[in-house]
Amino acid sequence: MMDEPRLKKNISSLTALTVLVGTVIGAGIFFKPTAVYAASGAPGVGLLAWVVAGFITIAGGLTVAEIGTIYPQTGGMMVYLEKVYGEFWGFLVGWAQMVVYFPANFAALAIIFATQLASLFGWQANLIVPTAITTAVFLASVNFLGTKYGGGIQNVATFLKLVPLIIIIVAGLLYPGGGPSPLIPFVATNRPFLPALSSALVATLFAYDGWMNVGTLAGEMKDPGKTLPRVIVGGLSIVMAVYLAINVAYLFVVDSATLAATETPAAIVAAKLFPGMGGKLITIGILISVFGAMNGYFLSGMRTPYVLANRNMLPFSNWFGSLNARTNVPVHGGLFILAIAILMMLTGSFNQLTDLIVFVIWIFSTMTFVAVLLLRKRQPELERSYRVPFYPVIPLVAIVGGLFIVVSTLLAQPLNALLGLGLTFLGVPVFLLQSRSMK
Predict the structure, then answer these.
(1) Do 59 and 232 form a contact (C-beta atoms < 8 A)?
(2) What is d(CA 162, CA 345) in angstroms, rounded to the nearest whole number?
(3) Longest distance between any two alpha carbons in the chain, whole Å
């Protein structure tokens, strides 16, 4: 292991909170209701899916917060798996994150941002990819200037993205003719309850993705032992409240069948709430939301190659493991993430890659939940400034939720799941070669 250069403790509680909220609340809140209500077949089951997914995610957050306070180091899940399962598993999740997960999410969000911008201003379609690349380079450049700049963008973007969401929530709940009646029936007569809930849960759990990325910033928090649990639980509670409130508002304005039948549910609702300007309002909201999510993924993702390099697990580890002398941020890791993201934008392969890696990331997430149980059994004497409440019930809820999404994805998309595993295990030769070179 290389002597690790020290990152400055520049990440405040507010920045960590906005990274979590801003990364999770991206484009999903505007587009996911289509999949949720198409799967559920009824408004009641659809809303229940948002609630259950929120509780599963919060259970995961409460669980991960314990291991995060034991190992409050930059790297997040990579560090947790390395400490509990060994270097190989820590490397493998880091490899999956740096090669596919972070670049693919960054690229996909950049394309969504550029597409919405082109729609707002009436640009031609051939400008979408250049606009996406320009936006990605701009965000990366700001983050290269220092943590306070990237964190500043995250703070502002997260607060701004909540404004249109709150406007839609308030206007929707006060919509003439709205009320509790559109929230029924609870279950569709032609669709069994459990299969409907199961299918809807898969869609909603994906909308909560990204919250664990805040763990990559733990080494730069001033007091991670106290900050991390508060940020994870507080941030996920905010996300769950926003998701539930805006879905109720959607249903007050249009019925669940309409939401299920359109690719732009939020735009349909906004057009009814604000005739003439609804489309532009929701487009601006999507732009702000996606911009903040992009920044959150990049701010977290650029730390991943840096952490792997400081364990000498990558080729050119000296290069990846260095910090910029002036800004004290891992610029080289950020350049790597940016380069792969641009290639994905140019080839158009990012959507498939994102689908592939979601399955793999949830395997690692579930392993992290299990790691808390293993640490309690193996090392009960470890100092824990925070302990997951209602142990072992909360960790078991998180584990069951994780297994559910892994099995559901495997059954629904077996080819994507296997391809995702294959892409991840391409890192095995890299690990073996690096391990041999260190001997």
Answers:
(1) no
(2) 28
(3) 72
Distances in Å between the Cα of 173 and the Cα atoms of 60, 146, 155 are: 30, 41, 27
CB neighbour burial string for 398-434, b if at least 16 within 10 angstroms, e if fewer: bbebbebbbebbeeebeebbebbeebbeebeebbeeb
Which tokens hold the place of 167?
């406007």
Query: 409-412: which pairs have CB atoms within 8 A and are 24 or more residues apart?
Result: 409/202, 409/358, 409/359, 409/362, 410/359, 412/202
Omega prior to 392 cis, within 30 of 0: yes
Q: Are 401 and 56 within 8 A, CB to CB?
A: yes
Separation between Cα atoms, residue 90 and residue 334, nearest integer Å: 20
Contact assessment for residue 30 and residue 266, using Cβ atoms and an 8 Å cutoff = yes
**Burial environment of residue 176 by CB neighbours within 10 A (0 to 12, 13 to 18, 19 or more):** exposed
Please report, to the nearest 10 degrees, the dihedral formed by the alpha carbons of residues 295, 11, 236, 268 taken in order.
-30
Residue 323's SS3 state is coil
CA distance 234 to 58: 9
- Each residue's pLDDT, cut to its tens digit, for the chain (439 residues) gives 444 455 566 677 787 888 788 778 877 777 788 888 888 888 888 899 999 988 988 898 889 888 888 887 767 788 899 999 999 999 999 999 888 888 888 888 898 888 888 878 888 888 989 999 999 999 999 888 877 777 777 778 778 878 878 888 898 888 886 666 666 777 777 777 888 888 888 778 777 877 776 766 666 777 777 787 888 888 888 889 999 999 999 988 888 888 888 877 887 888 888 887 767 777 888 888 888 888 888 888 888 888 888 888 888 888 887 777 677 788 898 999 999 999 988 887 666 666 667 788 889 999 999 999 999 999 988 888 788 889 999 999 999 988 988 888 788 778 878 888 888 889 999 889 888 776 5
Structure tokens of 426?
A: 């391409």
307 half-sphere exposure, CB direction, 13 A CA radius: 29
Q: Which amino acid is it at 140?
A: A
Q: Which of 252, 238, 280, 292 shows the shortest CA–CA distance to 57? A: 238
State pTM to two decimals: 0.81
Backbone angles phi, psi at 177, to 5 degrees: 90, -10
